[in-house]
Write a structure and sequence with these properties.
Elements lengths: L4 H8 L6 H14 L3 H19 L1 E4 L5 E4 L1
Antiparallel strand pairs: 1-2
C-alpha cells in the first residue's frame, strides 16, 4: 500500500520532533526505501517546501508585493 498524500505532505512539513513526527518519519522512510513512486512524490513535495522557504515576499513601493527568488 502506498503512502497517502496527507502523510507525504505532513512528512515534508515536519518542523518539530515529537512522538508523532518520529513515527511518521519512520513509516515514510521505510516505505520510500522500497517504493520509487512514493519516493518521487516525497521528493517533489520537499522541493516545493524548500522553494517556498527560499521565497521572500516584501512590500513594494506602490503597495504591491515583490518576490525574491
Amino acid at each position: 500500500m502506498h503512502l497517502t498524500t496527507e502523510e507525504i505532505i505532513r512528512f515534508a512539513m515536519i518542523d518539530q520532533i515529537n512522538e508523532e513526527t518520529v513515527a511518521l518519519a519512520k513509516k515514510v522512510n521505510s516505505h520510500i526505501a522500497v517504493c520509487d513512486a512514493c519516493l518521487e512524490k516525497v521528493q517533489a513535495y520537499q522541493a516545493v517546501q524548500e522553494a517556498l522557504a527560499r521565497t521572500k515576499v516584501r512590500p513594494g513601493g506602490d503597495g504591491d508585493k515583490e518576490i525574491d527568488r
